[in-house]
Amino acid sequence: MRRKWLCLIVVACACLFLATTVRVDASTYGKLQQAQREKDQAEKKAEQVQGDLGDLNEERAGLQTYLDQLNDELLQTSSELAGIEDLITQKENALVEKQKELETAKEREAEQYDAMKKRIKFMYERGDSAYLELFFNAESFADFLNKTEYVERMSQYDREMLEEYMTIQETIQNDEQSIVDERVALSALQEQALAKQDEVSGMVNEASLNVADYQDQISKKEAELLAYEQKAEESENDIATLQAKLKEENALTKQAMAAGFSDLSSITFASGDIDLLAAIIYCEAGNQPYIGQVAVGNVVMNRVKSSVFPNTILEVIYQNRQFSPVGSGRFAIALANHKATQSCYAAAQDAMAGSAPVGNCLFFRTPIPGLTGIQIGGHIFY
Questions:
Q1: How far is CA 218 from CA 42, 259, 291, 337, in A?
Q2: What pLDDT does residue 191 have?
Q3: Terminal CA-to-CA distance of the chain, rounded, Å?
Q4: Is the whole model's pTM more than 0.85, yes or no?
Q5: Number of neighbouring beta carbons within 10 Å of residue 358
Q6: CB-based contacts of 296: which residues, under 8 Å, 6+ apart?
Q7: Are 261 and 361 in contact (CB under 8 A)?
């Protein structure tokens, strides 16, 4: 009888244990499934936002090209206006000189006019009697001929002075009209250039506002992507998921430590590596202290130096499912729109030069219960 009761108790305990195990496994499996569904939903939404961002970036790029063309046109117009203003200055200086010449001509005209008046007055008062008196006072025939030639020369001189006076008057009139015409033409040219400059400047301002509007929309979409990244990260923070991920990461770390790291001097950097590294630092630690930004660059460089990971910055950053901003598309936005700050570039440069505030750490994430490592700002490096 005792054996029967003992057997019954053992069977009951076994059944209870199995039932509990099944419930625990079912619960864990259910959490994993729920976490995966939430992550998939976040990734689908992120893909939609990426599509919107692609359209916005194309439209912004078109506007930016148009804005660049307008700026070039504005620069050309400003250059033309400056040239016109220089020409006006030169013309004004020339007109000042011409005005002086005109004043001198007017003085000469006045002198000639005064001389002609005196000459006419003399001829009117004395008339031909002066010439007759001159001829009658001739002492000889030769003297008579000389005085005749003198009279002819005087008459010729009078005609020449009259012609010169008329020429001077005509020149003065032409010069005065020329000065007026040139000033009117230059003024009209200047007004046209100013009008064109104002028009292009207005178009530049309008295009700039449109570009800024698109940039604002892009920034909002970028914020949405960041929210989706955080949502996906929260889905991964399920204990079972994290345990599996940390187990995989620890295995990679042990493998990397066993294999060792290559020397920094053996790495050949490509021309765009600093842009890539600065962009991923901006996405992952743009809001972190400077040492935290260098630490992210340190992790990337550690992977480049490890045989467990790819051996270039490009391949490390784009390695599948390693950096969430790359998967969401936020990294591409930061890279295309030059979002990385001077601080991020300085951190990238320091990391590429060998600065290692987190030693040989290969991973980092936001703090979670039970995860140990080097904490800098909002990240734990391990």
A1: 19, 43, 29, 10
A2: 84
A3: 60
A4: no
A5: 23
A6: 280, 281, 284, 285, 288, 347, 351, 364, 379
A7: no
Q: From CA 381, how far away is CA 372, in angstroms rounded?
A: 8
Q: Comparing 17-21, 55-59, 147-151, 175-179, which segment has the lowest mean pLDDT?
A: 17-21
Q: Which of 56, 34, 37 is nearest to 329 (CA)?
A: 56
Q: Are 345 and 332 in contact, with CB atoms under 8 Å apart? A: no
- Mean residue pLDDT across the chain: 76
Q: Please report the DSSP string for 313-338 in residue order.
A: HHHHHTSTTS-HHHHHTHHHHHHHTT
How far apart CA 60 and CA 71 sit, in angstroms, is 16
Q: Which residues contact 195 (CB under 8 A, 6 or more apart)?
A: none
For residue 245, the model assigns a pLDDT of 78
- The crossing angle, in degrees rounded to 10, of helices 141-236 and 2-136 is 170
Q: What is the pLDDT of residue 277?
A: 97
Residues 91 and 184: beta-carbon distance below 8 Å: no
Q: Is 80 exceeded by the pLDDT of residue 80?
A: no
Residue written as token pair 């007759």: 132
Sign of CA dihedral 202, 203, 206, 212: negative
Cβ(306)–Cβ(256) under 8 Å?
A: yes
User: Do the Cβ atoms of 108 and 169 come closer than 8 Å?
Assistant: no
Handedness of CA 146, 148, 151, 157 (dihedral sign): negative
- Identity (one letter) of the amino acid at 351? A
pLDDT digits (tens, 9 = 90+) for 88-117: 788 777 777 777 777 876 777 677 667 666
**Can you say how many angstroms the Cα of residue 266 is from the centroid of all Cα atoms in its chain?**
36
Q: How far apart are CA 40 and CA 142, in angstroms?
A: 132
* Bridge partner residues of 126 (DSSP): none
Pick from 297, 313, 327, 319: which is nearest to 252 by CA? Answer: 319
CB 376 within 8 A of CB 295: yes
